[in-house]
Amino acid sequence: MVDLVKWCLYISYFYGRFSGILNFEIDLKTGRTRVTKRATIYAAGAQVFMFTLLVFHLLKMRWMSKVWTKANSLHEYVFMIMSVFRIVCVLLALVSRWLGRRHFVRLFNSFRRLFLSNPEAIQCCRRGIIFKCFCATVTEMVQLIMALIMMRRQLTFIVALGIWALVTLTAIINIIITQFYIALANIRGSYILLNRKLYDIMVEVQALVPRRRGVFVTKCCSLADRLDEIAMAQSELQDLSDRLSKTFEMQALCMVLSFYMSSVGTFYMMFSAAKYTKYMEEWPDIVLFLGTTYFVFYYMDNWISTYNTFHLLDAHEEMVKILDQRTLFPPGLDNRLEATVSNLTLEFILPIICIMFL
User: Fold this and answer.
1) 173 is in which domain, residue-wise?
2) pTM, rounded to two decimals
3) N or C: lower Cβ tally within 10 Å for the chain?
């Protein structure tokens, strides 16, 4: 059976290397990271080449005036501002990648260790990861096809390179969001596994019959040790989520601003095209269909990415609810077990404030 999650991770990695957003190598057999001159030179060259093409086309793209034949020049200014703003946002995101490359390498190594310790955690969120990658891929493919169809009459090698640069710009945004999504999904999957273990322990504790004997005390100590392991694992997940949030902080801000400006600019231009020009009447029906498909998958993709954080908060809240079952414990439990449960409750309630800012 084909492991779709594994293929999604592979595609995300190779796409990141091809677009230049990943400026280090990963050994796919061992999972180890390597900062090599080859990866550095290729990533820098790919990014410089892409931004050079984008700037060139923004300066030479006078064919946009043909699109708005019956409208004023405001529409072209909106397009230019929207494009420049997206380029600046992506540029800042890539700069933060270069400045924090060591942090990204260490963060990836931490997630690699998390995966090796809990390989089934990623499978708990496999449907979300597959759906996320599917929506992102469809969005990019539809955008590329639409651009090629709309520019088929003016399509030249230079124009094709410009379209490739624009698609790569979108790909960089999608790769950054997808990487953050997969990392957060891995943490959420680990929380789900911890919740299952915690629930089993709470059931065992409720079934205990206090008898101040050796077997009872040994059982309580064993349960307390298992709870300590869960507390340690949760503390590591909290630390990992904090590092993830800080490492992606600048990139997340740039992606949010890019999404907002792109949405406002795109809706404005579509409204203007429908109201002030007859240009849309010349479009093939397939373009209108692809445009609708693009917006459906584009906003669905952003909806999935946004709710990934809320799902993590739900998993953390579920852990707190499971601990609330301590009120059903029979009286007379071992003092160490009761103290462990109380400390665990305090530790799990406080970190939710930090996770809220992911």
Assistant:
1) 4-199+242-328
2) 0.84
3) N
In 251-289, which positions are buried (b, 16+ CB within 10 angstroms) versus exposed (e)?
Answer: bbebbeebbebbeebbeebeebbeeebebeeeeeeeeee
Whether the predicted pLDDT of 71 surpasses 50:
no
Query: pLDDT tens across 290-307, in order?
Result: 878 888 888 888 888 888
Sequence-ordered alpha helix ranges (H) in the chain: 4-19, 37-60, 64-67, 74-99, 101-117, 126-150, 157-206, 214-247, 249-276, 285-323, 335-349, 352-355
User: In this structure, is residue 222 part of a structural domain?
Assistant: no
pLDDT (tens digit per residue) in 339-358: 888 777 776 655 444 444 34
Non-local (6+) Cβ contacts of 169 within 8 A are 50, 54, 86, 87, 90
Q: Does 229 reside within a domain?
A: no
Q: Which two tokens stand for residue 205?
A: 């504790």
DSSP state letter for 326: G
State which amino acid sits at residue 194.
L
CA-based nearest residue to 132, from 28, 264, 11, 23: 11
| Any domain includes 95 | yes
Residue 224 lies inside a defined structural domain of this protein: no
Polymer length in residues for the chain: 358
Total number of domains in the chain = 1
Q: What is the pLDDT of residue 100?
A: 86
16, 50, 103, 220 from 258: Cα distances, Å: 19, 18, 24, 54
243/245 Cα distance (integer angstroms):
5
Query: Beta-carbon neighbour count of residue 46 at 10 Å?
Result: 17
